[in-house]
């Protein structure tokens, strides 16, 4: 079973993902961008480059995803393991959908659909996606970004894209209010996980 954690930067995904480790010791914990491959390194180089072309960046993230699938996700699912990923394809749909929509040098009619379509032939849809819902300003403050207002504006369009994704696939998503205390967020997440795990067994 594949469970993914999604949300804006600063929404608390990593905090939850680490706490869930203690309760699901048998699960495979993983993340995107990956932190153990040269594909992931290439993604982080691109994140550091203010002049990175948005389409080139999309394909770097997608290459990292393809490698992540074949190297980690598919073997774990074939073994029957529970896989919990901190970010996954919805991050590409929401973030690169927003970056490409704002790109002056690209003129894609519907960037979010374009990114979804690229994944369709090879990717694996999660069984459950837990979305940590937080307003962009709080997210930008928590993430400690240097240019908070510019970042919050961008995160607003990323959040709109997450809403579009939830609307088109409501049964896959569980929305958790990430303004709650860390303990309350963790409880909501573990409740959603426990329900999904018991449904699948
Ligand atoms: N529920 C919460 N309430 C307040 N602060 C939080 C909460 N969850 C996480 N934080 C803090 O917000 C910051 C970003 O959290 P993090 O888990 O790294 O988010 P993400 O992985 O989504 O970027 C960290 O300083 C973390 O301690
Ligand atoms: C996986 C992924 C991440 N990202 C972005 C989100 C983050 O701004 C950045 C790094 O991700 P991450 O290290 O998960 O950041 P955080 O823990 O702060 O949420 O990469 C994309 O734009 N597209 C993607 O496909």
Automatic annotation (TrEMBL):
It catalyses: dTMP + ATP = dTDP + ADP. Transmembrane segments: none annotated. Keywords: ATP-binding, Kinase, Nucleotide biosynthesis, Nucleotide-binding, Transferase. Coiled coil: none annotated. One of its GO terms (molecular function) is dTMP kinase activity. The keyword GTP-binding does not apply. Residues 5-188 form the Thymidylate kinase-like domain. InterPro entries: P-loop_NTPase (IPR027417), Thymidylate_kin-like_dom (IPR039430), Thymidylate_kinase (IPR018094). GO terms for biological process: dTDP biosynthetic process; dTTP biosynthetic process; dUDP biosynthetic process. Its EC number is 2.7.4.9. GO terms for cellular component: cytoplasm. ATP binds at residues 7-14. Signal peptide: none annotated. Belongs to the thymidylate kinase family. This is Probable thymidylate kinase. It comes from Natrinema versiforme JCM 10478. The gene is tmk.
